[in-house]
Amino acid sequence: MPKSTKQNGTVYLVGGGPGDLGLVTLRAKECIENADVIVYDHLANPELLRWARDDAEIIYAGKEPGESRTQQEINTLLIDKAREGKQVVRLKGGDPFVFGRGAEEAEAIAEAGIPFEIVPGITSATAGPAYAGIPMTHRKHNSHVTFFTGHEDPAKQGNAVDYAALAKLGGTQVMLMGVERLGAITNEMLKQGVRADLPVALVRSATTGQQETLTGTLSDIAQKAVASDFKAPAVAVFGEVVALRHNLNWYEKRPLLGKRILVTRIRKQASVLSNKLRALGAHVIELPTIRIEPPSDLREFAELVQDAHVYDWIVFTSANGVEAFFDIFFKLYYDAREIGAVRIAAIGPATAQRVKDFHLHVDLQPDEFVAEAVVKEFEKQGSIENLRILLVRAEKTRDTLPKELSALGAIVDKAFAYRTVPETRDTSGARRQLAQDGADLITFTSSSTVENFLALGLPWPKGMRIASIGPITSKTARDHGLTVDVEARRHDIDGLAQAIREFFEKS
Question: Model pTM greater than 0.90?
Answer without folding.
Answer: no
